[in-house]
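Hi R.,

As promised on Friday, here is the backbone we talked about, encoded as C-alpha cells. Could you run it through your design pipeline when you get a chance and send me back a sequence?
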C-alpha cells in the first residue's frame, strides 16, 4: 500500500510538472479518470441497444426474456445493496432499472424509434452526472456520513447507526451517535465496545460510550487513541498548601491529561452534598500510593483534621503521623475510635444546628463572629470557636470489619455527612460478605483500582461499567490506574480511567515537611469534637501526642508516645519494682495463708473470694488502669493477666462487668461480650 501511494504521488507530480499542451492533457485525463466509469456505462448501454435490435428486433420471445432479465437485475441490485447506505442502495437500483428498461425498449423497437433515442440522449448524461456528483460530494464530505466510520460501525454490528460531526480535542475524539429507531438501544452499543476497540486496535478502556439520559437511542462515542497514563508521574507535593478542604483535592490525572479532582465537603451553592469514599483495589493495584495522594492533599489544608486507623502499624503513612490528629493501630484502639466517632456525630450535628448551618462549610471552621450564625438567643454574635472538617480514615478496613462485624460503619456512614465528617474506607475487596449492603450504599464516592474482573460490580455502579469502565483489565499490572466516581465532577468522566501519582523514597522528606507544617499551621480539634471523643475514649484521645520533634518508638491508645525510658531516669535498685510494691519491706515475713490461696487458677471457681467492698475497689482500680493505658474497650479476655495477678476467676470478672454496666461505668458495644469504659469524669 505504501509503494502504491508513493507511485501515485510521483505520477501526480509528473502530471502537474509540465506546462506544455501534452502536460495539460495528461493532467486533465488523470483528473477525469475517476469520473469516466458512469459515462462508459452509458456508452456501452447505447451500443448494446443497437446490437440487440439487430438480433432480436422481430423476436417476441426475446422481449419476454429481456423484460424478465431487467426485473431480475434490478432486484439483485437492491438485494446486494442492503449492506450499504439507504441512499446508495436506492441510487444503484434506480440506475440499473433505468438502464435495463431503456436497453429492453431499444432491443425490441430500435434505439432511434420514437422517443427512445431522445431518452438516451437526455437520460444517459443525467444518470452519469448523478454518479459524478455523488463521487465529488463523497470526497469532500465529512467522513462520518458515508466513509470509514460508517464501515467501521457496520463491522461491529451497528451498520444502521448514524455518526454525527466528531469533536476533536487533544487525545480525545467525541462523536454523537444516533441508533436505528426501534431496532437499537444503548445496550447494543455497550456490547459492541470490545469489537470496536479491536477494530481500532486500541485497548478496551480507550473506547467508551456516554448515553444520553433523555434518549434510548442517542449518545456520544468517546475514543482516546493514546494512553497518556503509561508514563509514571511521581508525587512532588500537594496541589494547594494552605487552602480549604472545600477546594478540590487533586489525586492524579485522567487519560487525556486533565487533573483528577475529588471533593469531600458539600457545597450548598453548587448543590453538591458531602461524600464518603470507598477506596478499593486488589493487592498490588497501587492502593497505598492512592491513599497517600489523598492524605497529603487533606493534610495540606487548614480547616480539617484527620483520624486514621491502620492495622498495618502505619507502614505506608509513618512520615505523615505528626500531622494526623489521632492515629491508632488495629484491634482495641480501632474499636475505641469507632465508638468515639459515633459519639462525635450528634455533638457536631448539635453544634451545626445551634449555629444555623444546614451542612458544614468553610465558615464553620472560623470563629463564629457573624450574628447570622450565632448560638445566642439575643441575636448577637456568639464568638464560639470554629469547628474544622473531620476525615475518619479506616485503612485495611476488612480487618476491622472482621473484628467488629460487617455493619461496624453503617451508622457512621449514614449519619456522619450531616455532621461535617467524611468517612474513607479502604479495603481490597468490598464484597457483600465483608461489608453490609447498607454501609456500601452509604458510600457515594469510589476510587476503583485494578481488581479481579469478577469484583468489578462490587466497586463500580453498573451504569459506569456499561459505559466502558473495566478495572478488571488492569488487575495489579498497572498500579495507580483507577476510575473515580464522585459528586462534583462531570458524569462523563466516571468511565474515564485515570492514574494517581507514585510515591518513591524521594517523597519521604517532603511528606515529613508537610506533616510538620500541618502540626504547626493546620487545624486542631475543636472543643466539641475533642470533648465528645474524650467522653468515650478518655486518655486514649486526650493522651495522644503530636510532636514534630518526636519519633515514636511505640503507640499507646493510638497516640504517638515514646515508651523508652533511660536507666538514668530511675532510682538505682528500683528498676524491677512495681509501684504497688514500693512500700513492702523485703525483710518482713510473708503473711499467713488464707483459705483458697492454694488454688489461684484462672478460669476456676476456686480461689480466695474478696469481700464485696474489696471486690468493688479491686475492679474499680482495674478499670482505672485500663483507662490510663487508653484501653477503653474491654471484655473478660482482657482481664486474663489481671486475674492471674490478683488470683481471681473469670466468672467473678464477668459478674463484676455486669455490675459496672449497671453502675454506669461501662456501656455495651455492638460486639457481644465487649464493653466500653465510660471515663471517670463522664461517669461522675
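Update: got your reply. Pasting your designed sequence below so it's all in one thread:
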Amino acid at each position: 500500500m505504501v509503494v502504491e501511494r508513493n507511485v501515485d504521488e510521483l505520477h501526480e507530480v509528473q502530471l502537474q510538472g509540465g506546462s506544455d499542451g501534452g502536460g495539460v492533457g495528461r493532467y486533465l485525463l488523470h483528473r477525469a479518470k475517476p469520473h469516466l466509469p458512469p459515462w462508459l456505462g452509458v456508452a456501452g448501454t447505447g451500443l448494446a441497444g443497437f446490437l440487440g435490435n439487430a438480433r432480436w428486433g422481430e423476436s417476441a420471445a426475446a422481449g419476454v426474456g429481456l423484460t424478465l432479465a431487467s426485473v431480475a437485475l434490478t432486484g439483485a441490485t437492491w438485494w446486494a445493496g442492503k449492506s450499504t447506505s439507504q441512499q446508495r442502495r436506492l441510487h444503484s437500483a434506480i440506475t440499473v432499472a433505468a438502464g435495463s428498461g431503456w436497453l429492453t425498449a431499444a432491443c425490441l423497437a430500435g434505439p432511434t424509434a420514437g422517443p427512445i433515442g431522445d431518452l438516451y440522449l437526455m437520460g444517459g448524461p443525467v444518470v452519469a452526472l448523478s454518479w459524478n456528483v455523488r463521487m465529488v460530494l463523497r470526497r469532500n464530505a465529512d467522513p462520518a456520513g458515508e466513509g470509514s466510520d460508517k464501515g467501521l460501525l457496520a463491522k461491529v454490528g451497528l451498520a444502521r447507526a448514524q455518526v454525527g460531526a466528531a469533536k476533536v480535542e487533544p487525545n480525545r475524539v467525541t462523536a454523537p451517535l444516533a441508533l436505528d429507531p426501534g431496532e437499537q438501544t444503548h445496550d447494543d452499543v455497550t456490547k459492541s465496545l470490545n469489537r470496536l476497540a479491536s477494530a481500532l486496535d486500541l485497548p478496551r478502556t480507550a473506547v467508551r460510550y456516554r448515553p444520553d439520559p433523555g434518549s434510548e437511542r442517542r449518545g456520544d462515542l468517546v475514543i482516546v487513541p493514546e494512553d497518556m497514563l503509561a508514563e509514571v508521574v511521581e508525587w512532588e507535593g500537594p496541589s494547594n498548601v494552605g487552602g480549604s478542604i472545600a477546594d478540590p483535592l487533586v489525586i492524579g490525572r485522567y487519560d487525556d491529561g486533565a487533573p483528577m479532582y475529588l471533593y469531600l465537603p458539600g457545597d450548598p451553592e453548587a448543590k453538591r452534598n458531602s461524600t464518603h469514599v470507598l477506596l478499593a483495589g486488589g493487592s498490588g493495584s497501587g492502593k497505598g500510593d492512592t491513599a497517600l495522594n489523598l492524605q497529603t492533599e487533606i493534610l495540606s489544608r487548614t480547616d480539617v483534621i484527620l483520624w486514621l486507623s491502620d492495622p498495618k502499624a502505619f507502614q505506608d503513612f509513618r512520615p505523615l503521623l505528626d500531622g494526623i490528629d489521632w492515629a491508632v493501630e488495629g484491634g482495641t484502639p480501632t474499636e475505641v475510635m469507632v465508638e468515639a466517632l459515633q459519639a462525635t456525630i450528634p455533638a457536631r450535628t448539635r453544634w451545626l444546628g445551634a449555629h444555623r448551618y444546614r451542612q458544614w462549610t468553610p465558615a464553620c471552621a472560623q470563629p463564629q463572629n457573624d450574628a447570622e450564625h450565632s448560638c445566642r438567643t439575643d441575636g448577637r454574635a456568639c464568638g464560639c470557636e470554629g469547628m474544622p472538617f473531620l476525615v475518619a480514615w479506616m485503612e485495611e478496613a476488612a480487618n476491622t470489619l472482621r473484628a467488629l462485624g460487617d455493619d461496624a460503619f453503617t451508622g457512621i456512614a449514614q449519619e456522619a455527612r450531616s455532621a461535617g465528617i467524611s468517612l474513607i474506607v479502604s479495603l481490597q475487596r468490598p464484597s457483600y460478605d465483608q461489608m453490609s449492603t447498607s454501609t456500601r450504599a452509604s458510600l457515594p464516592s469510589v476510587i476503583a483500582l485494578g481488581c479481579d474482573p469478577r469484583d468489578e460490580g462490587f466497586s463500580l455502579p453498573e451504569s459506569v461499567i456499561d459505559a466502558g469502565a473495566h478495572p478488571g483489565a488492569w488487575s495489579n499490572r498497572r498500579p495507580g490506574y483507577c476510575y473515580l466516581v464522585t459528586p462534583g465532577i462531570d458524569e462523563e468522566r466516571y468511565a474515564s480511567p485515570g492514574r494517581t501519582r507514585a510515591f518513591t523514597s524521594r517523597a519521604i522528606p517532603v511528606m515529613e515537611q508537610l506533616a510538620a507544617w500541618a502540626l504547626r499551621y493546620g487545624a486542631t480539634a475543636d472543643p466539641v469534637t475533642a470533648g465528645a471523643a474524650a467522653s468515650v475514649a478518655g486518655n486514649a484521645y486526650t493522651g495522644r501526642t503530636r510532636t514534630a520533634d518526636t519519633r515514636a518508638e511505640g503507640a499507646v491508645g493510638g497516640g504517638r508516645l515514646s515508651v523508652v525510658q533511660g536507666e538514668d531516669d530511675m532510682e538505682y535498685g528500683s528498676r524491677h519494682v512495681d509501684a504497688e510494691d514500693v512500700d513492702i519491706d523485703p525483710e518482713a515475713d510473708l503473711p499467713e495463708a488464707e483459705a483458697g490461696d492454694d488454688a489461684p487458677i484462672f478460669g476456676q471457681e476456686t480461689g480466695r473470694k474478696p469481700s464485696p467492698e474489696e471486690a468493688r475497689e479491686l475492679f474499680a482500680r482495674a478499670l482505672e488502669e485500663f483507662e490510663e493505658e487508653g484501653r477503653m474497650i474491654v471484655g473478660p479476655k482482657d482481664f486474663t493477666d489481671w486475674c492471674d495477678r490478683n488470683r481471681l476467676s473469670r466468672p467473678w470478672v464477668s459478674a463484676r462487668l455486669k455490675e459496672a454496666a449497671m453502675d454506669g461505668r461501662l456501656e455495651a458495644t455492638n460486639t457481644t461480650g465487649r464493653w466500653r469504659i465510660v471515663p471517670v469524669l463522664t461517669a461522675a
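One thing I noticed while checking it: The domain at 599-683 is CATH 1.10.10 (Arc Repressor Mutant, subunit A).

Thanks again,
M.
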